[in-house]
Design goal:
Largest sheet: 6 strands, mixed
Number of strands: 8
CATH architecture: 3-Layer(aba) Sandwich
Number of domains: 1
Shape: globular
CATH topology: Rossmann fold
Number of helices: 12
Structural class: alpha/beta
Length: about 270
């Protein structure tokens, strides 16, 4: 059996409960992929996006839903080593990627403040434009369960609000485009296990800034949240699941205020009614 088929089989068989079933549940529960959708699958070169690509391939192969998928890699200025690793992994995994060039790393490298924020914004703009060019109505990203929990805690601890990373959302700047996250329910430790089981090697963040300033990554707030959750799991192994469930079980009668579409409403507004 060819290697890529063994890797595909591991998703469906060995990691059926941890990866495949959770992927399918997210797609169904949140109605992420529907009939006649055209989905642009964004591949950064990391473990999450390549797993997403394989899951989308398997869904297309086994599902009754008729949809199209395009596997796109935006090259923001990768080193030759990282670019070649992405190409080699795509061949190894049998993912038919299309690479298009941008100058994001060059722009971000010359900025002193918030380079990661600027990089994320520029990436999003390039990806939306590429999706429009391909005639896609959806963009699939590889964010997973742990990203959701970390985002929630970051919003609470540093943003003073309760909000999270949604499984899907409409683009505000590109009409008719929707962003989806099919790995929404898949946990990172299961992705890492899948990577080790198949002896795969992927790139992490490959920008020039983090290569030279690794301490910023070490000190990042997201890594701080990751470490915090890991420690909390030692006290309560279900802590991440409970945080996730709380986001789907908000008791409006017991919160001080809520905000929708930018409009704030206090509990006092209806208190005496």
């Amino acid at each position: 059996m060819e290697e890529y088929k063994e890797i595909e089989r591991s998703i469906i068989k060995k990691y059926r409960k941890e990866i495949w079933s959770r992927f399918i549940k997210a797609v169904k529960d949140y109605e992420l992929i529907n009939e006649n959708d055209k989905v642009m699958v964004c591949i950064s070169g990391g473990k999450d996006s390549f797993l997403l690509a394989k899951c989308i391939q398997e869904l297309k192969r086994h599902s009754k839903i008729n949809f199209e998928a395009y596997y796109v890699v935006m090259d923001p200025g990768y080193t030759e080593y990282n670019k070649n690793l992405i190409i080699e992994n795509a061949k190894r995994l049998n993912v038919p990627i299309e690479i298009f060039k941008s100058d994001i790393f060059d722009v971000v490298y010359s900025v002193d403040k918030s380079p990661c924020y600027l990089c994320a914004r520029m990436r999003r703009g390039y990806l939306y434009s590429k999706a429009k060019e391909l005639g896609c109505n959806k963009i699939a990203l590889g964010h997973h369960f742990d990203d959701v929990i970390e985002t929630t805690l970051l919003s609470m601890f540093y943003g003073s609000e309760i909000k999270t990373m949604m499984p899907k959302l409409h683009s505000t700047n590109f009409e008719g485009l929707e962003l989806i996250r099919p790995l929404y329910l898949v946990k990172e430790h299961d992705i890492l296990s899948w990577v080790r089981y198949n002896n795969l090697t992927f790139i992490n963040c490959a920008c020039k800034f983090t290569e030279q300033c690794s301490k910023e990554e070490e000190d990042s707030k997201r890594l701080e949240m990751k470490s915090l959750i890991e420690n909390l799991r030692k006290i309560n192994k279900n802590i991440d699941n409970n945080i996730f469930k709380a986001l789907d079980n908000v008791n409006i009668n017991c919160v001080l205020g809520v905000k929708k579409n930018g409009i704030y409403k206090s509990f006092k507004d209806d208190y005496d009614k």
